[in-house]
Amino acid sequence: MIRKTIAYASLILFSFLFLAPFYWMISTALKSDDEILQYPPKWIPDVLHWENFGNAWMSQPFNLYLENSLTVTILTTIGQLISSSLVAYGFARFTFKGRDFLFMVVLATMMIPWEVTMIPLYMEFNYLGWINTLKPLIVPSFFGSAFYIFLMRQFILTIPRELDEAARIDGAGSFQIYARIIMPLMMPALILVSVFNILGTWNDYLGPLIFLNDQSQYTLTLGLAQFKGMYEVEATGLMAVTFLISIPPLLLFFLAQRYIVDNSAGVAIK
Amino acid sequence: MNIESVVTHKQPAMTVQPKKLKGRAFLTPYLFILPWILGFLAFTLGPMIFSLVMSFFDWPVVGEVTFVGLDNYVNMFTDDPLFWQSLWVTIKFALLFVPLNLFIALFLAMMLNQKVKGSGFFRTVFYLPSVISGVALAMIWAWVYDGEYGIFNYLLSLVGITGPDWLNDTSWALVAMVIASLWGQGSMVLIFLAGLKSIPESLYEAASIDGAGAVQKFFRITLPMVSPTILFNLIMTIISAFQQLSLALLLTGGGPLQSTYFYAMYAYDNAFKYFKMGYASANSWFMFVIILVLTFLVFKTSGKWVYYEGDNRRGGEEA
């Protein structure tokens, strides 16, 4: 009994601590510019200033940033789904020379800190004339990503091989088996990878920061960071935009919660 | 975390070995993994080698490139107070953040594991902050910490504490960053929860019969059984502490007085603010080596405190 009470008390306390910053963001976004300067702070604004959202959004080219963010997010997701699944299929379904070693290398690349490749990548993309375009953010996703390859390979290993063999007897080649049998059966893994990739790309700040310097190419995160630096900006507007760009990840999380929660835990345990 | 068992995972249904692969068939698997091989060469291995080479050169963005041998590394240690400052900031951050993060996550996971009602709600709440962008997180916390109108100090004042001006106080800015980072790491609760759930109930029942109390059960059963999860999380948090950059860039810009000047920010500044590409490469490689050494040490010592089920080298009791 006491144990349950302690459990509930601490869970409720921590939930408050975890939710309070969100609440504070939304409540600030809806306040008038005078209200945010009141002390003690007001939890609920007198009048809800919904117009703050539109005003803040339109004060900067956030629509353009949105377009860039969408472009990058959609294209990288397509890229990852195609490339990572091909590679995962290769690792999961064939025995070939160097396979285990190469797979170790795939896993090992997850350990490499991004700082190590950041500078040469910048120079490489600069040499290619890609700096200040969205290409550095998009193109690499068409070559697979270690974590997604790992996730998909683990998933393919759970698909019975008899299915492949039956198809092979019917005359299907390896690529057909991949496209017609493995891919449709791999839906849960594909959804999970899409969700992770959308969240990661949408939220990415360092990639855009390093590779983009022209405002017309900015993504939303970069636009928001720059918005903060402008000195006539009020907290109301800042919180309004922060909230708006957090809506897609939050929505996606609610929609795909089961996939994310089950799997992020599962992956770590393996 | 047992990488070897993951890698050499063999399919039980592999009895039908295909005949010796020849010609095109021999190439097929390589064609499938070709995208990764190309990407690895172009975006990982190539850049890594290039970066290592650059670290032995004086390499400005514009102008002459000159070979300087180990000078970059030597200068870092002997002639650059910022190097030591940023290294110290990062270590301080890690020393505060890593244990707190593990402790809170394990604690909350244990509370969730008490068969509470609404555990789905609590899980969602703890996960939520890790879903939004680091930029959004920084924006929110900059406002929460605001010296004049911040809600944080207001809440503290309710319990009689006069909070500092968090982000502008040399002794508190780093603590502020630890707290903000903890907020974004609630997802770790779920990893621990999964670990806890995999502990068989029978172990606790047996312990109860033998007269073990709650404290004993925690130290003799719970802790050893989740030790692999702790190991995994420990490594991940150490690595993330050394790569901490966006929060510093956005919350404090490394200040006040470089009190939140993280190592990653130091390397970033050398590269993209001062354009000392060679020097910054040396910075990055030094960090890479530190991460490798730390990871290696954690793994090396893990045999002493990590308990793997079905591992006969140690008895369950003493683990």
UniProtKB/TrEMBL annotation, chain A:
Gene Ontology terms: biological process: transmembrane transport
GO CC terms of this entry: plasma membrane
Transmembrane portions of the chain: 7-26, 70-89, 101-122, 137-156, 177-199, 237-256
Any Pfam family hit: BPD_transp_1
Mode of membrane association: Multi-pass membrane protein
CDD domains in UniProt: TM_PBP2
Keyword annotations: Cell membrane, Membrane, Transmembrane, Transmembrane helix, Transport
Domain ABC transmembrane type-1: 66-256
Superkingdom of origin: Bacteria
Subcellular localization(s) per the UniProt record: Cell membrane
Keyword Membrane set for record: yes
Family, per entry: Belongs to the binding-protein-dependent transport system permease family.
Protein name (record): Sugar ABC transporter permease
UniProt source species: Brevibacillus fortis
UniProtKB/TrEMBL annotation, chain B:
BP term (GO), one: transmembrane transport
Top-rank lineage group of the source organism: Bacteria
Entry's transmembrane regions: 30-57, 87-112, 124-144, 172-196, 230-257, 277-299
All residue ranges annotated as the ABC transmembrane type-1 domain in the record: 87-298
Membrane topology: Multi-pass membrane protein
Similarity annotation: Belongs to the binding-protein-dependent transport system permease family.
Protein name: Sugar ABC transporter permease
